[in-house]
């Protein structure tokens, strides 16, 4: 659903590129990434370590690697 601009141009609907509602896995991953960014940092090694420490693994249940994280972010369009 697109809403008309309320404050002039350009208008951005934060969900405009979303092709579906996030899955429970995607919500959990996003929330955990926010926590990792806040407490561990933004470097890829920090992110992978933080996700694995919190036992938030890949969709197939494996621990994250830098390669699997990059691949998943690519798949999710991030």
From TrEMBL:
Domain named Recombinase-like is located at: 9-78
**Highest rank taxon of the organism:** Bacteria
Coiled coil (UniProt feature):
none
Q: Any transmembrane segments, and where?
A: none
> What InterPro entries is this protein classified in?
HTH_62
Spell out the Pfam families in the cross-references: HTH_62
Annotated region Disordered: where?
1-21, 58-78
Q: Where is the composition biased (Basic and acidic residues)?
A: 67-78
Q: This protein is called what?
A: Recombinase-like domain-containing protein
Its source organism is Streptomyces venezuelae (strain ATCC 10712 / CBS 650.69 / DSM 40230 / JCM 4526 / NBRC 13096 / PD 04745)
